[in-house]
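Most newcomers find our protein records easier to grasp once they have seen one. A record pairs a protein's sequence with a compact description of its fold. An example says more than a description, so a record of this kind follows:
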Amino acid sequence: MGSVVLYLCYTLVQYIIALRVGGSLNRMFKDLASGIKISISRSITTSFEQYMGRIGWNEDKFNVEDFIREWKEYIETSASWYGQISDEMKADPVFHEELAVKINEVINKIFTEAPTQAQMEEIESLQTKHGREFDYSCKMEAKYIIETYKK
């Protein structure tokens, strides 16, 4: 599953850049306070985890536009960083490009973080209990399987 979603995330970045940006990168993101950068990364991680959980980690249901819409709703209602940057920055196409790059980096990190030994052992136990195999490729997906089938 990971390779398909990674491709979709790459497509996501290209989609955002094509729709919203032009010009060269001038490192607006780099100049933000570290707390804001951490909060941005956390908002991407949280909204991606919620979105993937909502679609049951089913790659056939993954839709870039739906994810972006859900992330936008999340940052506008729940993310602390969104109120800390100016409206001018929020509207800047270069900032959109930098956010697209950050989204790609965060999602790539999610898919490259291997499940823990404890998660793999718990999933093995759940497979025995439920009499089926669970496919998973990263720590976050393993967490979803455990939370879903432990109930």
In short: Confidence is low (pLDDT under 50) at residues 17-26. The CA atoms of residues 75 and 82 lie 6 Å apart. The helical segments are 2-20, 34-54, 64-77, 87-91, 93-112, 117-130, 139-149.
